Amino acid sequence: MGPSLMAKILIVDDEVQVASALRRLFRREGFAVEVALNGDEALQKLTTFDADLVISDFRMKGMNGAELLEKVLRVSPRAVRILLSGHADLWSSAPTSAAQAVSHFISKPWDDDHLVARVRTLLGEQEPSASNP
Q1: Rounded Cα distance, 76 and 73, in Å
Q2: Is 63 a domain residue?
Q3: What distance in Å separates the CA atoms of residue 59 and residue 83, rounded to the nearest whole number?
Q4: Host domain of residue 35
Q5: CB proximity list for 22: less than 8 A, separation 6 or greater
Q6: Higher-confidence position of 128 and 38
Q7: In this structure, what DSSP letter does residue 116 have?
Q8: Alpha-carbon gap, residue 83 to 100, rounded angstroms
Q9: Is there a domain that residue 132 lies in?
Q10: pLDDT tens, 34-54?
Q11: Residue 124: is it exposed, middle or buried by C-beta count within 10 angstroms (0-12/13-18/19+)?
């Protein structure tokens, strides 16, 4: 059997129900999915799981999602990085370096179909996009 073309997604959220819902959604769509419940666990998973895309919640205990995605950019530079948040106002105060580490922003609550479509589009465009205006 040849190498699997199944894209790998790492989901990071400290709310188990949210992480499980996202895992079910993406597995149903044919993706290989791993879940981490915090930033440290996510970075640990990335040492063995070569994620094509990382979806992280913003508000988590310890390392927040923006801080995590900054680290993901260093360890897995080709992974697409999505920040999931219901707190856009809070996010606007994040440091610029964190803002640059986030490829895309999706607000909670998300629409399943929209989220899956967005992820498929992002995985289709692996080459770095032009710098955001």
Answers
A1: 6
A2: yes
A3: 10
A4: 8-124
A5: 11, 13, 33, 35, 55
A6: 38
A7: H
A8: 12
A9: no
A10: 999 999 999 999 999 999 999
A11: exposed
pLDDT of 21 above 60: yes
> What integer pLDDT is reported at residue 4 of this predicted model?
47
93: which 2 tokens?
Answer: 């105060």
Write the single-letter amino acid at 132: N
Q: Which residues pair with 32 in a beta bridge?
A: 8
Asked if residue 2 is part of any domain, the answer here is no
Instruction: Write out the two tokens for 35.
Output: 């879940």
Condensed to tens digits (0 to 9), the pLDDT of residues 70-101 reads: 999 999 999 999 999 876 555 566 667 777 78
pLDDT at position 96, please?
72
Residue 110 belongs to domain with CATH number: 3.40.50.2300
CB 39 within 8 A of CB 13: no
Number of domains composing the chain: 1
Task: Report the 10 Å Cβ neighbour count for 105.
Answer: 13
Q: Quick one: which of 12, 21, 15 has its CA closest to 46?
A: 12
